[in-house]
Amino acid sequence: RDRARGDGGGALVSARAKSTVAAAAATLLAAASLGAVMPDQRWWVPVTFAVLVASGCGALGRRLPGPAPLLPLITPLGLVVVVTAVGAAQTAWLGFIPRTATLPALRALVRAGLDDVRQYAPPAPTTHGLMLLAAAGVYVVAAVVDLLAVTARRPALAGVPLLVLVAVPAIERNGGIGLVRITLAALGWLLLLALDGREQLLGWGRALGRNPIAEGSAALGGAAGRVAGVSLLAALVIPVLIPPVQSNALAGHGRATGCCSSGTLQIIAPLTTIQNRLHGQDVDLLKVTTDNPEYLRLTSLDAFDGNQFTQTSDTSPTGADVDGALEDATPPLTSVTTVHMTATGTDKFGENLLPLPYEPTVVRPASGHWVLAPRLRVLFSPGKDTTRDLTYTATSIVATPSAVQLQSDGTTTVIDSELPATLAVDTALPQPVPAAISVLADQITAGAPTQYDKARALEHYLSTTGGYAYNLSAQVDPGYDGLVTFLVRDKVGYCEQFASAYVVLARSLGIPARVAVGFTPGTQNADGTWTISTHDAHAWPEVWFPSSGWIRFEPTPRPDTTQFLPGYDTTAPRVPTPSVSVPNDTGEQFPTPPKKPATGKAGRSTTATSLTPQHHHSLFWPITLLVFAAVVLAPAVAGAAARRARWTGAGHDPTRVAHAAWASLRDAMTDTGVPSRASETPRATARRLGELLRGAVDEPLTRLAGAQESARYAPAGAAGLDVGHLRTDAQAVRLALLSRLPTGPRLRARFIPPSVVERVRGARSRLRRRNGSE
């Protein structure tokens, strides 16, 4: 086929092949943004497969001869192959050809994937359903990028689907996807622009002699490539030159991260990490040897902004590697138990925080750089060290006060001015606090004489007598509104809702409290050791007492926590269960509903986020953006498809190729506002356009006019002409006509081509005439 086209046809095929590869590479670079929402990199295999199939289908559609209306069906068939191979290969013939059992399997997997989207907050586990959705979504993006950048030769417009592919993870991931992933996506788009600009410039033929300016322009992809490159460089450099407005601004809101240079620990959203672990497969994380199984604490969250719990920054001594006794350890003044443990992380457990009983006094990691955040007594790695395959030994002093000791520990009423200044963040609540929360806290603790009795009353109400149920499928809205709904109306949630609600209720009473995240002791093995898995992740509240320090409470009605209750929790609280009727801010009464049966999993259960958003409508804006982009691009894509169909229909017939080239020229004139004259010969039209464009494309115009006159008037048509360059010539004239327009008309010509509008109007008129004649 290349020989039939001549040298020009071979060059065109070579350019298209390069553009196809570049479009696939750009899509894969943009797809790297998915790593922000699915850290497990297993999704790369199906996503790469989807991109290769989409690119192959696009190339096949451009190469195969056949009826133009049938060729676009190749791409949807490729999508069927991808989803079958990724989602239901075991039911398909040869692993990718659907059979009768394939559709039900795919339907179930898509439903599971959509459930995962609703339940997981990024970063999410790479479930089979999410991999199928990711592969299908990336396939669609790859197909659109291939259509715009290769078939329609509009690489700038190909940036829209690439932007969608980057925007969806950026919207889903609290804190964004990171500078590296954004840069990779931008480089993919620049690659398309540079390659297209180079092909357009070099399409005029080989220059006589060496022209450094032209070679440089070709390498950079023309003006579009230079502008985009400078813009990207500015976006990367300017933020570095501007002084930051806050420390660790690029850390984002992802998994726990530490900052190396300043010794600052900033754990933004570990509740999301817990949620992902618990909703995924049950994977062993830690092997522990100890005689006193205890909750293992990763960190505590003390800052509440009215929407979610996070951790305030903590400062560690610069360069103080932990390998032995910890500095400033302060054992409680009440009863304590010494806990010795040896733990080894599995290859699935890559955390930069050490799980330890509270409060650790001696820690010896076998390797790595680990430092102490003294205020929260958290051990973390400020570099790249993690718990993966790490063995460490630790000794902790765990406070085990009795109920009598706690009742005498602290005053009967808590006054902020009597608390240490370091506890200010542990009593703070954004104002105004909803009346429903304050009234409920007062009613629950009515008659409780001490801080301990108030804390126990809150715990007993949430875990036992308040009518609350543990359910992993509960939907909880963020902020105070979601908290009121959970506490007063729905009364269904999981451990992080219970812990977060407990802390807010306690703080409304002036009691210092915070949310701790970590693990329950896990499951004991036959040899006496303990195995901690992803499903042992947990969140619980800690309450501060002057002599005992931070004491763990357990308000979550979760079956696997009852065997590890603290010593003070052996008797019921001294406060009777109140009869609660809580008003909202409008005065409406919310009576306590009857207790709902727990529907969560027994034994080692799972949890999800606290008061963080659940992304009920997380796909609204991405879908809206896709629909908007489809509407905006529809006329441009329709015009490109019409031109492609015209060229495909011409095949190898020189006469038909000449007519197709001239029809493309007439469309370009219509789109750019140049009047067409029916009585004008092709040579006269070429002369008029040459004067309008000041000789910029005289040679392409001469070839186009000559081929059209030969095809129209010569006895043998254009059979003796070399028509291999006509498609490139028509494209060159179109670009020249567009370049002379101001920005507004040029954009209108590109996105809403008048030739497409006229074609639609003509089709409607023909349809009306036919209906009228009938």
Question: What can you see in these coordinates?
Answer:
- With 774 residues, the protein is of the alpha+beta class.
- It is 46% helix and 12% strand.
- The protein has 22 helices and 22 strands.
- The strands form seven sheets. A seven-stranded antiparallel beta sheet has the order 8-10-13-9-3-18-17, with no helix packed on it. A four-stranded antiparallel beta sheet has the order 4-16-19-20. It has a three-stranded antiparallel beta sheet with strand order 1-2-7, with no helix packed on it.
- Strand 5 (303-304) and strand 6 form a beta hairpin.
- Helix 4 (102-119) packs across helix 5, helix 5 (128-151) packs antiparallel against helix 6 and helix 16 (620-650) packs across helix 17 (654-671).
- The protein starts with a helix and ends with a helix.
- The model is unreliable at 1-9, 204-221, 238-269, 412-417 and 585-618 (pLDDT under 50).
Please render the helix and strand layout as text.
Elements lengths: L1 H30 L12 H20 L10 H14 L14 H18 L8 H24 L7 H14 L6 H24 L9 H9 L1 H20 L15 E2 L5 E3 L3 H10 L4 E7 L5 E6 L1 E2 L4 E2 L3 E2 L8 E2 L10 E10 L14 E6 L5 E3 L4 E3 L10 E9 L3 H5 L27 H10 L6 H15 L3 E2 L8 H12 L1 E2 L1 H14 L4 E7 L3 E2 L5 E4 L3 E9 L3 E4 L28 E3 L5 E3 L28 H31 L3 H18 L10 H11 L5 H16 L12 H14 L3 H9 L2 H20 L1
Parallel strand pairs: 14-15
Antiparallel strand pairs: 1-2, 2-7, 3-9, 3-18, 4-16, 5-6, 8-10, 9-13, 10-13, 11-12, 16-19, 17-18, 19-20, 21-22
Helix pairs in contact: 1-2, 1-5, 1-6, 1-7, 2-3, 2-5, 3-5, 4-5, 5-6, 6-7, 6-16, 7-8, 7-9, 8-9, 12-15, 13-15, 16-17, 17-19, 17-20, 18-19, 19-20
